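During the reporting period the student researcher (J.K.) took over the structure-prediction task from the postdoctoral fellow and processed the backlog of single-chain submissions. One of the processed entries is reproduced below for the supervisory committee.
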Amino acid sequence: MTVADANPQLATRPRGNWLVLGAASAGVGAALLGFSLLGPQTGVAAADGAGETSVSAGPSTTDRAETSRPTAAQRRAERRATRTETRQARRADRTVDAEPASADRDVQASATVSSTATPTATPTATVTTAVTSTRRTLFNSAPTVTPVQLTGQVDGPITGTVGASDPEGDPLTYRIRRAPREGSVQLADDGTYTYTPNGQFDGVDTFRVAVLDGSPFRPWGTSATSLINQGAITFQFRYTDGGTTWTAQRQQALQDVARELTGYIMVTQPVTLTYNVGVETNPGNLASAGSALTSGYAGFWRTVVQNKLLSGVDSNGSAADGQINWNFSYAWGLDDTIGADEYDFTSTALHELLHSFGFLSEIDKAGSNTGRSWTSFDRFVVAADGHKPISAFYTWNTADNARLTGASGGLFFGGANAVAAYGGLVPLYTPNPWESGSSMSHLDDTTFTGADDQVMNAKAGKGPGVRVLSAVELGILKDLGYQVVTPQNSALAFVGLLVLVRRRRRAGSSVGEDAA
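J.K. obtained the following structure tokens:
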């Protein structure tokens, strides 16, 4: 059944009338628009034309009053003359009727010249200006706002920027919509700010700022919340060796690295992370670290440390959130001076802590991937053609087993932020043979070499190591859910349960092998 069948009144409604009314409305609107654009000069010209049109052109009555009684011949001649005059009068009337249009143009042009000493916009220019102004007003894009704290995540002055920009380049003004609760903020005209904590500051605060571009349709502006961190993440290390290997100097070195790592991560509430710290007994490993998953059910899960950082939730109560083991049978450089025969403690500690933050995989060697519980890192694992080896039902595709040891290009990290930073899929460490504790949980050592060496490479050589997280590594952290910043005033002299290990490289090898 059609609408017409269901409702005869709708079916018989004269659609043409709507069109006529629409056309009439459009005509009236166009006339009003023309009047508003052309101004009162058009009205003056039209009045002059009307006056000229009202002039009479019929003299026959006067002629008859002044003439004596005519003869029959005279009456016939008079009738012929009258018909001739009438035809001439009608022609004159038609001519006069046509004059106002011409007069209208003449008067309008004359008035434009004589009414002002300054140039007056033509109707076309006026319309163009009006349309441009309307388009700019109605379709003006809102400014974007991306607040970021630039300094002070660890200590020192807390500064940042509102991070506002306007697509049309309109001048911007800034307003504090909601003041911080645990400090004060000074907002500069250029959108930068300085935050000063007060006595109630607990490491985390926020304030809300509005950016206005002058649009009448957005008098309230575009708003965003700026997150403030300083000392928001604290570490508690529980040393299990009785102090025999973890001397006071080594403990301080670990604490310093952990403190500086917090300069990369922003949290929404204060967090305390607890670690059991012991001794690594495998002679082939420099160190190892990890954190349990928050669940053993099917799915992709955060580590306990990762979940606490992202949500503030303590998933395991009084138990330690993470585990670190260290092999002090090797020589370690604890400060910024690293000898040629020493390993860089700072670089390796940064590496191990990031594993506990979720930079690790639950994917195992071929034949061992029978479970359905994975890390959130595994969610982004893909093959070179982009397909995922873990199905929507969280099962491993055995057809991808050969990729675990490098076949067909191996496996990659495919998170959007990491891919954008690298310019493509990010190669993961898939050596042949499989290396338990290293494969799949690191960046590929054969890809990231030399000046492109990464903190999260699987193996480390002697001498100064990498102490700066790259754009690729920061991209991976973003994909894992972190709000990431690049510290501007880090004290590090930037010149490595699920347990991940960092192995040493053999002398003379750019990549190295498992020394175990």
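The committee noted the following: The chain has a mean pLDDT of 78.
J.K. will present the remaining backlog at the next meeting.
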